[in-house]
Amino acid sequence: MARISVTVDGARYVDDVEPRTLLVHYLRDRCGKIGTVVGCDTSNCGACTVLMAGPDGGPVAVKSCAVLAVQVDGGAVTTIEGLAGQDGELHPMQRAFHANHALQCGFCTPGMIMAAVDLLRENPDPSEAEVREGLSGNLCRCTGYQNIVRAVRAAAAELRGEQVLPAESAEPAPGTPAAVEVEEQEPVPVPVVTP
Ligand code: FES
Ligand code: FES
Asked: What atom of ligand 1 comes closest to residue 37's alpha carbon?
């Protein structure tokens, strides 16, 4: 066993862990951060992405299934559950994903949002192509990515202090209830029962 001390979403944890314990399992099983999910366990899908202190102290996105818990000893980790402000106000990236219909099943969303936050740290004004390139390590099998790209660029604009793209311009991804055309139905006549 190895003793580690790590700050997760602002709370400090001191634990004895097996040296082989993956960070994602430590976060979920010990810290209860089940918002960080395991999609593949082989560092392909990006669903487990969290932010951890980088070499310069700034947060960088890492796939927590590719990091050992002992590697974060003495450091700090932010999961999707620690991204909102202390008053509960959502991070602009979370709001943008919601406003732009950038999720369906939501499984990829925590990792996608954390990777997107890191992307904007490096590039506050990414083009559509740069967003796609920057998030190429995060897979989504539902949305087709279009609204994810739109959300990331909307969050970028907000964080730069610019006018946010109107959320109405976002198209619900195919298959979502909002994308289904509903035919107007004549109201069913209600029989009048007389005593
Ligand atoms: S679970 Fe898929 S990259 Fe970590
Ligand atoms: S919303 Fe389902 S995998 Fe992305």
From this structure: 1
Closest-lying ligand 2 atom to the alpha carbon of residue 142:
2
Report the residue among 42, 79, 114 best suited for mutation to probe ligand 1: largest number of ligand atoms under 8 A from its CB: 42
CATH number, residue 135: 1.10.150.120
Rounded mean pLDDT of 88-117? 97
End residue of a domain, out of 55, 83, 111:
83
- Look up the domain containing 39 and give its range: 2-83
175 falls within a domain: no
pTM of the model: 0.85
pLDDT: is 125 or 181 the higher one? 125
Tokens standing for residue 49: 């992405």
The pLDDT tens digits of the residues spanning 10-33 come to 999 999 999 999 999 999 999 999
> pLDDT-derived band of residue 138, with 50, 70 and 90 as boundaries?
very high
155 shares a domain with 104: yes
Residues contacting ligand 1 via CB (< 6 Å):
38-41, 43-48, 63, 65
The tally of domains found in the chain comes to 2
